[in-house]
Amino acid sequence: MKASLAWLRSLLPELVATDEQIADALTHGGWHVRSLERRADDVVLDLVDTARADVMGHVGLAREVAALLRVGFVPPGVDAPVRVAQGNAEASVRVEVREPAHCPHYGLLVVEDVTVGPSPDWVCERLRALGIAPSNNVIDLTRLAVLESGHPVQAYDLDRIGSDIEVRFARRGEVLALHDEDMPLDPEDLVLSSPRGPLALAGIQASRTAEVGEATRRVAFECACFDRASTSRSMRRHGIVTESGLRHERGANREDTADVLAQAGALATRLAHGAAVPGSIHVISAPWQPTQWVLHPASLRGVSLDDAAQVLDLLGCAVVALHDPGHGGGLQVSMPAFRADLRGTEDLAREVLRVVAVWTSGSP
Questions:
Q1: What is the C-alpha separation between 328 and 322, in angstroms, rounded?
Q2: Going by C-beta distance under 8 Å and a sequence separation of 6 or more, which residues neighbour residue 285?
Q3: For residue 183, which phi and psi values (nearest 5 degrees)?
Q4: Is 76 within 8 Å of 148 (Cβ atoms)?
Q5: Helix, strand, coil tally for the chain in percent (to 5)
């Protein structure tokens, strides 16, 4: 997994640590840093892949660095589109989620009048630095959105896929048209489909019949949350492992879909000169409900509740101090949607101890 330290620094204006100090803090925080690669205007950090979905984007990695080095972090806002089209998205496309348990949130945004062509030099240079070959401005902007947020974004040619979209299980005998073959689908595969047939193996791989090309004028951008286990089974069943699939397998953020879509739309108006159609579509079958746990001093091995609260706040948790004189108090902690890996008080205590160990190690 590669990350741009220049990008990280733009997200952390208070950060004064050197590149080596950042890498050292990550190492002390349990990360395996393969290398720091110096380029003309940047330094690329190469990390061993992680099971944490939240740090598979620069925003999440910036939050992690902020916690380890005790600096402030504010997530970036969403840019406004340069051009806005007439009408609304619901007049352009209809979305039905037939398997809500396997797709609790599906989002779609339409951008019209795009011009597909090469990406600007700065986009190509950023992608190449992170080991990604540029494609075209529409595909590349989805990569930028993913690299920033960690949440997969897919672009479809709206005129090729049609205006009726369903999220459902595949039907026996259906195939997905890939570039080199027609891949038979399994009835347990979750797919995106239209009346013309399957458009994508949900969250993993799009059909060649839906992809954006030079003739594309209307783009549907997808940002969704697909079931982790279902995504994992489909990838293994078909031997297709993609960056998008890995992110869904590890747990995409249930709360940032609207912002990620809006940012992709804004980029499309800048890089592909399109016009964003107002009113992105969101089908939400299961709104995010944060889990809460109470963390007691006994699990913190001597770390103070104040330090524990600071760590958890820096990591994005909502923390409320509980005053219980008979039991020494505690912390009521609400899990953020982007930390699907935190599943109980043991995980919370482990995170506190991990970060405090960096604070006390002498790492800046």
A1: 9
A2: 97, 100, 101, 103, 104, 105
A3: -90, 120
A4: yes
A5: 35, 25, 40
Q: Tell me the Ramachandran region of residue 238: left when phi exceeds 0, alpha when psi lies from -120 to 50, beta otherwise.
A: alpha
Q: How remote is the C-alpha of 252 from its chain's centroid?
A: 6
CA 27 – CA 46 distance, rounded (Å): 12
How does DSSP classify residue 239? T
Is 90 in contact with 278 (CB distance < 8 Å)?
no
pTM here?
A: 0.94
Q: Map residue 36 onto helix, strand or coil.
A: strand
Domains within the chain, CATH numbers bracketed: 2-69 (3.30.56.10), 89-284 (3.50.40.10), 292-359 (3.30.56.10)
Among residues 305, 351, 314, 311, the alpha carbon closest in space to that of 30 is found at: 351
User: 30 near 81, Cβ under 8 Å?
Assistant: no
Dihedral through CA 38, CA 42, CA 48, CA 50, nearest 10? 170
E strand or H helix that includes residue 34: strand 33-38
Q: Round to whole Å and give the CA distance between 353 and 355.
A: 6
**DSSP label at 206?**
E
DSSP state of 256: -
C-alpha to C-alpha distance for 75 and 149, rounded to whole angstroms: 10
Query: Would you give the distance in Å from CA 226 to the centre of its chain?
Result: 12
Contact in structure between 192 and 199 (CB atoms under 8 Å) = yes
Hey, what are 241's tokens?
A: 């492992």
Question: Over its length of 364 residues, how does the chain's per-residue pLDDT go in tens digits?
Answer: 999 999 999 999 999 999 999 999 999 999 999 999 998 889 999 999 888 889 999 999 999 999 999 999 999 999 999 999 999 999 889 999 999 999 999 999 999 999 999 999 999 999 999 999 999 999 999 999 999 999 999 999 999 999 999 999 999 999 999 988 999 999 999 999 999 899 999 999 999 999 999 999 999 999 999 999 999 999 999 999 999 999 999 999 999 999 999 999 999 999 999 999 999 999 999 899 999 999 999 999 999 999 999 999 999 999 999 987 556 689 999 999 999 899 999 999 999 999 999 999 865 5
